[in-house]
Amino acid sequence: MGRSGNLQITGDELQAMVNEGLLGLKAGQSIPATNRCLTRQEVANRVHVDVGDSSTGAFIPFSNWTIDNVFYTGASPNLTCNWNYLNSSTSTSVLFEMSQEGNPYLNTDLFGYVNGAPLRLDPNNNLDGMFFGGPQYSPQMNTAVRVGNSVTVQANFGLATPDGASYGWDAPGYGFLEVSANGTLISNQQIFKPFNNTSSTLQSLSYSFTVQANTSYYIKAYSLITYEYYQCYSSVSSNDACNSAFNGTNGCECCYQGGSGTC
């Protein structure tokens, strides 16, 4: 089959789109290594594209044909598939959540990228990243993230430059980045950072994945205050570090070996 006005797509071209993360290959399928123009049925059977209808744009139209007096409707095995029919199927669900400790301040920022382009996670504030939260939730991102796309998520903890007197990590604590697919954790990263108010505290965690069909993704970044086992802590308020300023007050206790039980 020859090409008409460079509108049809060959097997080699379709494979290139899959390689670039523009289209997702269906499980168990492969694409013919050929410069022959593929039929609509061949394309629809091999990659995740909208067929018959679409709420987001282009689609491979249905046709009617008969074989041995049997009537069929669907993506035609006889007609070639045009470039402008290809519209990658949207993902099922992609949601982001960011939550940070506010007192003491443990700064957390969260970003998402699809094929290298930033997602607008906070459209109300016209921001790509999520910066304000306890917690903050993104809108549903599935219309911007399609099956076969490469998604990278990045969580930043602390600040590179001071915000007033704070470098964004005002107590010892952990930063977490979690990614779930259909409710199952597929990445769980954490980083411990000690208290620091004299220099940059910025550190990042990131994770990349290829969007699969029939899969819902949930990305969560958050910070938590913690104290190492040898430190005293307040039994009254988790926001009060036990140091010389609090000795004997605020329910300060020391549980490490050799501790007196009270500060």
Structure description:
By secondary structure, the protein is mainly beta. 6% of the residues lie in helices and 31% in strands. A hairpin with a 2-residue loop joins strand 10 and strand 11 (184-193).
Order of helices and strands: HHEEEEEEEEEEEEEEE
pLDDT below 50 for ≥5 consecutive residues: which ranges? 243-249, 255-263
Large-scale geometry: elongated
Distance between the termini: 84 Å
The neighbouring-strand order within the major sheet is: 8-3-13-10-11
Summed up, the helix count is: 2
Helix content: under 10%
Structural class assignment: mainly beta
Strand content: 25-35%
Number of strands: 15
- Largest sheet geometry: 5 strands, mixed
> For the residues shown, what is the average pLDDT?
85
Radius of gyration equals 26 Å
Can you summarize this structure?
The chain has 263 residues and is mainly beta. It has 2 helices and 15 strands.
Sum up the structure in keywords.
263 residues; mainly beta; 5-stranded mixed sheet; 6% helix; elongated; disordered C terminus
Topology (SSEs and partners):
Blueprint: H1 11-19, H2 40-46, E1 63-67, E2 70-74, E3 93-99, E4 101-102, E5 105-106, E6 108-114, E7 117-118, E8 136-137, E9 150-157, E10 173-181, E11 184-193, E12 203-210, E13 216-225, E14 233-234, E15 252-253
Parallel strand pairs: 3-13
Antiparallel strand pairs: 1-2, 3-8, 4-5, 6-7, 6-9, 9-12, 10-11, 10-13, 14-15
